[in-house]
Amino acid sequence: MDLLNNRSSVSEFIMLGLSSSQEIQILFFAIFFLVYVAIIVGNLLIVISVIVDNHLHSPMYFFLANLSFFDLCLSSATTPKMVTDFLREYKTISLWGCMAQMFLLHFLGGSEMTLLIVMAVDRYIAICKPLHYTSIMNRQVLVGSVLLSWAVGFVHTMSQMVFTITLPFCGPNIVDDIFCDLPRVLKLACTETYILELLVTVDSGLLSFICFILLLISYTVILVTVRRRSSGGLSKALSTLSAHITVVTLFFGPIIFIYAWPSSGFSVDKFLSVFYSIITPLLNPIIYTLRNQEMKAAISRLRTKHILRINWY
Prior knowledge:
By secondary structure, the chain is mainly α. The chain has one domain (2-312): Rhopdopsin 7-helix transmembrane proteins (Up-down Bundle). The protein is 77% helix and 3% strand. The protein has helices at 2-7, 22-52, 59-76, 79-85, 95-128, 133-136, 139-164, 182-186, 194-229, 232-260, 266-290, 293-312; strands at 12-15, 92-94, 174-175. Strands 2-1-3 form a three-stranded mixed beta sheet. The mean pLDDT is 84.
């Protein structure tokens, strides 16, 4: 900590946010506050349903509960600060608060990226090797996969943050975004950051693009395999995978544009930042609950139990 403080005269950053109009900011406050509440409720509902409902004690829902937990944490790393900033004239964040945001964003983002790959592997085994599914996806594999996701996320963020925290910041200190992120903050360092920006592009942008393409290829392989075996099973497999493909596209799309093409434009990047940190964590539980009959039934059972418990008291 002393190293960063000694080399930097900047102690805080000023966030420009989405608008300078007070009326629009109040409107944004109301909208994003309600959206964040919906994120908390929706993702917690999935996590609780998977934990308490015996019908959902399977690998697919185990991974879905972890995905909801990642979404909840990812949104919480930026949204509360952003929402309260809408009510402030000066939107400031401390130097170490900025570093913490970037650490958590890439830690949770890298973990979720790995988990989505694991979920694709799970669907491949379930659809293409159903007879061996329970023996392959045992408890040790499930726990190990989630721990691997956390480990990959930690390595991913540390590979970038270990260099970022040593950068000197002597001004300017204005970040034209809604939260701290590497492409914006690196440009404020009072030293040459070309190599580090290239590292971020490769580590976050190119890696995300490659993973996204591999995931799409894996889903295509699954559908082709099912179609060869049974034409009737294609529609069922497509129904199962459509939610996964939608979530993968929503997650990787903004990341690829933000990090693979970091100079695409401030207004575009702000929109993608909102989409990545708020809209995607909101849409994920909606997509999985609306397109999954078992999840909807579990939530209905959970609500019925809760109502009965209240009536009993």
